[in-house]
Amino acid sequence: MTYAAITGWGKCLPPAKLSNDDLATFLDTDDQWITSRTGMKERRISHVSVSELAYVACARAIAAAGKTAKDVDLIVFGSTTFDELCPNAASNVQRLLGADNAACMDVSTACTGGMYSLSVATAMIKSGVVKSALVIGAETISPIMDWTNRDVAVLFGDGAAALYLEASTEETGVITQALGCYGESRDILSVEGWGLKYANKGRMLGQSNWAFLGQEIFKKAVAGMAQACEKALAQAQLDAEQISSVVPHQANLRIIDTLVKRLKMDKDKVFVNIHKYGNMSAATTLVALVEAIEEGFIAKQSYVLLPAFGGGLTWSAHVIKWGDRSHALSTSEVQLPDCPDTGLALVKAIMAAKSV
């Protein structure tokens, strides 16, 4: 049987930080209010496009796997904030990398985008269509954020991560998965003004209103991720005690804590980085996984559980069996261009452009 082993990983976080204190300079909020409700302390604001973030993350993932761009057969790019819809954003990453042999596709499932992309790439490798793939989760949410809305402006940030997958005969990579969607509740989390539905109706691109019913989203997020975890664990014939680490989507610390209690899992097994980056939508779970690998949180030959939830309302859980290697075989010299501005300066420039 063929498996899709994860042999490379990389992330790219833009350098400009936006702290809770920065947000308090233009919103009616403070650090204590944000931290107590979300667990977030700061987030990143990008000075480059989402494809550029993805490119750097991919270059690092390829290097970590000890491969070159010519080895890539497929690029699957999960995001909500693609630079373009036609041509697709994955083709731009292919061009930046010089991955001429790669087929390219985009996946749009909001915060689960990186994980749904992992499912697609894994299936393509296991079916024999391709032998290797890059999986991307990346977002630049800051340009479409409604920075006047405290309910959402404090939650989101920009970032990217990528995984390199390759065919293997060893039981490794995604072992089981569960995907689903609460389509009847899709309107409780939506970005109004982002899409052709709003074309030619007097809106500037990026001038958005966010529908975000926090309490309802909380309930759906916990329920969706819990049932996904239960299904994926049952398919793998594993119980909670056999999971060595949990790397959840980082949307809200309260959601993570409630999910862990519902699954009756040890909190010490849960990787959390929400305080550093906030919710990066499609990038969030993959960035957390990459950091967990880099920090030695993922043990060799262990089972990892990755629950996620996003707009749609999509939900997922993946059980991964990790291999024997958690160190990068090589490093990439690819870097983002310098950013002379602070996160606050970048956000104020976005707000000023929208007010014209």
UniProtKB/TrEMBL annotation:
Q: Does the keyword Lipid metabolism apply?
A: yes
Question: Which residues are in the Beta-ketoacyl-[acyl-carrier-protein] synthase III C-terminal domain?
Answer: 233-322
Query: Where in this protein does the record put region ACP-binding?
Result: 250-254
On the tree of life, the source organism's domain of life is Bacteria
Q: What class of enzyme is it?
A: transferase
A GO cellular component annotation here is:
cytoplasm
Query: What are the Beta-ketoacyl-[acyl-carrier-protein] synthase III N-terminal domain coordinates in residue numbering?
Result: 105-183
What are the catalytic residues?
Answer: C111, H249, N279
EC number, UniProt record = 2.3.1.180
Which terms in the Gene Ontology molecular function aspect does this entry carry? 3-oxoacyl-[acyl-carrier-protein] synthase activity; beta-ketoacyl-acyl-carrier-protein synthase III activity
Q: Where in the cell is it found?
A: Cytoplasm
Per the record, the domain comment is:
The last Arg residue of the ACP-binding site is essential for the weak association between ACP/AcpP and FabH.
**Family indicated by similarity:** Belongs to the thiolase-like superfamily. FabH family.
Describe the function of this protein. Catalyzes the condensation reaction of fatty acid synthesis by the addition to an acyl acceptor of two carbons from malonyl-ACP. Catalyzes the first condensation reaction which initiates fatty acid synthesis and may therefore play a role in governing the total rate of fatty acid production. Possesses both acetoacetyl-ACP synthase and acetyl transacylase activities. Its substrate specificity determines the biosynthesis of branched-chain and/or straight-chain of fatty acids.
Q: NCBIfam families this protein is in? A: fabH (TIGR00747), PRK09352.1 (NF006829)
- Complexes and interactors: Homodimer.
Q: What is this protein called?
A: Beta-ketoacyl-[acyl-carrier-protein] synthase III
- Which organism does this sequence originate in? Colwellia chukchiensis
Q: Which gene encodes it?
A: fabH
